[in-house]
Structures are given as structure tokens and as C-alpha cells.
Amino acid sequence: MTDAQPPAQAVALRTGVSALITNRRGEYLLHLRDDISGICWPGYWAPVGGRPNPGESLDAAIARELQEETGLTIPLTAFTTVDQKNVEQKGLIAIYTGQWDGDAHALPLTEGIMLHFFPTAVMSRLRLPPWCREAIELHQNQ
Is the full-model pTM beyond 0.85? Predict the structure, then answer.
């Protein structure tokens, strides 16, 4: 089930934001996160995202995170909210969608190791957080 806007409880709890960016081939732009302690899902592939600053809306947070981490400023649409399913850091993740057809390796990455577009056929072989798999599956089935 998808929601045009994240539910009210998503805002009340610790809510993160993430952008499922696809290209015209249906591949997903994923970010290899740093493998360091203290961050969510270290060493995993995941869509670009983060947490809102105090007083920042979820819409503003995902636009800022995407621009800060990749240099991209593209239209995004609220898609759904999923549970992070992380033992250390509880909370929900508001998922947004967008499309971009550029070269992921040419983006000015400011966090993490690298960005890459992946077809869904290889997703089962990647180290992805459970919430990411859930969001991509929901997106594929819409």
C-alpha cells in the first residue's frame, strides 16, 4: 500500500527520508554507504537519504539530502513509508520517487563510497537493508 503523504505517526516518530531514483531502463540508483560505526546500515547499498533537520519538513529534507549527497535537484514525489527494521535505530523512512537518466559515476558524491544504477535482477545479490528491499518491491508492484 502506498501513501501520497507519510502518515502522521511517521512525522511523530524518528522518520528518515529516502529517494528511489530510477532511470528509463528501470534501474535504481543506489548509494554504497561508508562501512563505519555510528551510521545506519554501514557498508550496505541503499537509496540516497537521511534525516530531517529540526523543524524541516520531510519534503524539504529529501530534496536537501539528494542535493547535498549527489548534486541532483530533480522533482520527487512522496511514495510510501516503511519501517526501518534496524535494531539500533528505530523509526520510519518516508520514501520518495524520482527519475534521472545521467551517469551515476559522474555525480559529485559527498558521502559514502559510490553511486551506481542497478537492475532489479541483481538486487538479490546486493547487501540491502530490509526496508530498501521492501520499498523497491512496493515500487515494482505499483
Answer: yes
